[in-house]
TrEMBL record:
Residues 195-240 are annotated as: Disordered. It comes from the Bacteria. Residues 238-314 form the HTH OST-type domain. GO terms for molecular function: RNA nuclease activity. Transmembrane segments: none annotated. This is HTH OST-type domain-containing protein. Gene3D superfamilies: 5'-nuclease, LOTUS domain-like.
Length: 316
């Protein structure tokens, strides 16, 4: 249960915006539409476009985890036409993080679904209805959200923007209290897009043989959840999942605070925000300090008076 003085966060995701921005960032401006990614079947055969779609997977877990570092997430919504196969591939991942899926049907032949207007109306309505919300996180890079960010700030809210580099309006970033680049979020691994020249000029049979190799080179996310590929990642044991959760929490807090050493209770609180199911006792540890101590290859633990401090071990 959140304390009375704890920050309370509302997250709003313009899913179409962030998905297109990520794809175009990796494969060139306009590539999402020219590749007709919207109509890519979820369970279709391997192809060049499917490989490119896999490389451009958006790690929504990393976004939600980062948003939770500002406080307890009390509301999270993602806006898109969820009947579109490219969007539907993410439904499991979003539902696993308790994100409400707001269905928007296209209203024009240009496939505009009015997400910016619907999202803005919902934010303003929520802020008047839920006056205890202290932070608003807008996941988009569209300049249409400038007025929304300004209005939320005038209502006394701390506004955080998250967008993809190269597709984010500088004016939107300036209108927010803070703006984070998606690529710089803890847990998001950098993607190396393979040179497709050879695949394009080879015989079809050779291209089909190369597809599994290309698939194996796709980015693997650290934050968990479904990636949108038809192949699910191997399920981690509870112990390994808890270790990954600890590492992600430490990376997020270190990046946000610039503190080398972090209080154990702050780290545990962040872990609980990211995964409310986490409980060190269910993993066989008497206390959180015992849980951390069992991971001494990953984390250093030291005492400063009554305080227990943690930090990630330095590489090398």
């Amino acid at each position: 249960m959140a304390s009375d003085n704890e920050a309370r966060v509302a997250v709003y995701i313009d899913f179409d915006n962030i998905l297109i921005s990520r794809y175009d960032q990796l494969h060139g401006r306009g590539a999402f539409h020219s590749d007709k990614v919207r109509t890519l079947p979820v369970d279709g055969r391997e192809s060049k476009v499917r490989t490119r779609f896999g490389e451009a997977t958006v790690d929504l877990g990393a976004i939600i985890d980062y948003a939770s570092s500002y406080g307890s997430i009390v509301l999270s919504r993602a806006y898109a036409d969820w009947s579109v196969p490219a969007h539907a591939a993410y439904r499991e991942q979003l539902l696993a993080r308790a994100v409400d899926l707001v269905q928007l049907f296209p209203t024009t032949r240009a496939l505009k679904n009015g997400a910016d207007i619907r999202l803005a109306v919902d934010v303003v309505e929520d802020l008047f209805r839920l006056d205890d919300v202290s932070h608003v996180v807008i996941v988009a890079g569209d300049s249409d959200y400038i007025a929304l960010a300004q209005r939320a700030k005038r209502l006394g809210k701390f506004v955080v923007g998250i967008g993809v580099a190269g597709s984010t309006s500088k004016s939107l970033a300036a209108a927010c209290d803070e703006f984070a680049d998606y690529d710089a979020l803890p847990g998001v691994e950098r993607v190396v897009v393979q040179d497709e020249t050879d695949a394009d000029t080879s015989e079809p049979a050779a291209a089909e043989e190369a597809a599994p190799a290309a698939k194996s080179r796709r980015r693997r996310r650290k934050s968990g959840g479904s990636s949108g590929d038809e192949e699910a990642a191997p399920e981690l044991s509870p112990d390994d999942a808890a270790t990954g959760l600890l590492e992600r929490a430490l990376r997020i807090l270190t990046q946000k605070t610039d503190d080398e050493w972090l209080h154990a209770n702050v780290v545990k609180e962040q872990m609980k925000r990211m995964d409310p199911v986490f409980n060190e006792k269910s993993l066989g540890h008497k206390s959180f300090s015992d849980f951390v101590g069992a991971r001494d290859a990953l984390v250093e633990l030291r005492e400063d008076g009554q305080a227990r401090l943690l930090r990630l071990k330095q590489a090398g």
